[in-house]
Amino acid sequence: MDQFLSIKHSARSSQFRSSPCSKQSFQSEDDRDTALSFDFTPKPKPKPLQGLTPMSSPFENEDNDKGSQKEESVSKPFIPKLSRFSTQRVITMNDGDKDEEPEGIEKEVKLCSNIQLQIPDEQTKTIEEHLKNFEEKTKLNPKLKQMKSKPMSMRNFQKVGESKEDKLLEHPFRHLIFSPKIDELVLEKHLYITQRGLIYSRKCLKGPSEQFIEKKKVILNKINPNKINTIFLDLDETLVHACNSRETPTVRLKQQNEDGSEIEVGINIRPYATYFLQELAQYYTIYIYTASSQQYAQTIVNYLDPLKQYISGILSRSNCMETKNGFFIKDLRIVKDLDLNRTLIIDNLVHSFGLQVENGIPILEWYDNQEDLELKYLLEYLIEASEQQNLKEFNLTHLQLDYLIDYNIKQ
């Protein structure tokens, strides 16, 4: 992605200071009054997550996070300062979506997980309440228990006997991948990435103030004002993949920048992406929510929806909230008059929707696999969700993401 994307520097007066994510960052004078102080998170030696090695991912490849820095130990426990939001804007030559978790998430997740074992807080109580509510619902409606390991696609395939080949059918979190056929290693890696994002979101992430949210508020247009359901879709590794210099893209596009210049953007389109948008638009108002620039996102959307029939609008990096550690958070509360009970958001990184986990669907990340079927079968789940009175509750009940936090992932 780095080879194709760029950002135009603002001409406004800026104050330089070093960023905790090891990149240059600037804070405009207009934003100084709302910027929050840096985190000074203590660094006690953490206990490893259940089922994970102490310092590294069980899935070693070039797409993983870089190694964590060596932790220091302290003599007594401290309550970690939760991640807060800043109005900083990271300036890099790569203006595309962050397709990898920021450096430091491994360390921060382990730290929060360790401290959380000793000191309960509001996030922990929220998790316990969700689990308790689910247990109460399953007592009243035993059919809900059957949803735990049976995604929509798998239950449909059972009718024709095609799911018999799936050796992972009884896996407690098989439902987090919607395709009827999947490799066990792919599932475990997906669970590992999702679990880490959940721990960060539930135990480390603290939302911004109401004043900060009000400052970010936006009004979005609808192609069809009569639709009551809303869905936000990520771009990179969800619908498309932006290729780097070592990859050969299937599609090359011209991105026009604010200054009138053009750059070439090379992308791969996920299988069934067009079909997914066409069908989904019958049930939802669709928006793109990405951590990339507006120019990049608009270029992709113009290609996917040239007649502007399916996608009603774009929220880009300027609509995200950046934590002091370089995490871009997509907070749905910035959309004016949005009913969160009738809203879903899809992203390959859980921390992106970390402030609305109940509304989120962590999709399997995608780069170039042309045999991928995830969008095709995810559509079945989304259609069924659209028929519910409360989409957020339906999604919470079906995905049961909070149970994954303490799950012992196989290595």
Structural description of this entry:
This protein has a single domain, classed as Rossmann fold. It contains eleven helices and 14 strands. The protein has helices at residues 105-116, 122-140, 143-146, 152-160, 184-203, 210-216, 273-280, 294-304, 374-386, 391-399, 401-404, and strands spanning 14-18, 24-28, 85-86, 89-90, 230-233, 240-242, 251-256, 262-269, 285-289, 311-315, 321-323, 328-329, 343-347, 360-362. The protein has a five-stranded parallel beta sheet with strand order 10-9-5-13-14. A three-stranded antiparallel beta sheet has the order 1-2-4, with no helix packed on it. The protein is globular, with a radius of gyration of 21 Å. Residues 1-56, 60-81, 87-95, 115-120 and 140-161 have low confidence and may be disordered.
Summarize the topology.
Blueprint: E1 14-18, E2 24-28, E3 85-86, E4 89-90, H1 105-116, H2 122-140, H3 143-146, H4 152-160, H5 184-203, H6 210-216, E5 230-233, E6 240-242, E7 251-256, E8 262-269, H7 273-280, E9 285-289, H8 294-304, E10 311-315, E11 321-323, E12 328-329, E13 343-347, E14 360-362, H9 374-386, H10 391-399, H11 401-404
Parallel strand pairs: 5-9, 5-13, 9-10, 13-14
Antiparallel strand pairs: 1-2, 2-4, 3-11, 6-8, 7-8, 11-12
Helix pairs in contact: 1-5, 7-9
Features:
Mitochondrial import inner membrane translocase subunit TIM50; three-stranded antiparallel beta sheet; 11 helices; five-stranded parallel beta sheet; Rossmann fold; transport; 411 residues; alpha/beta; disordered N terminus; 28% helix
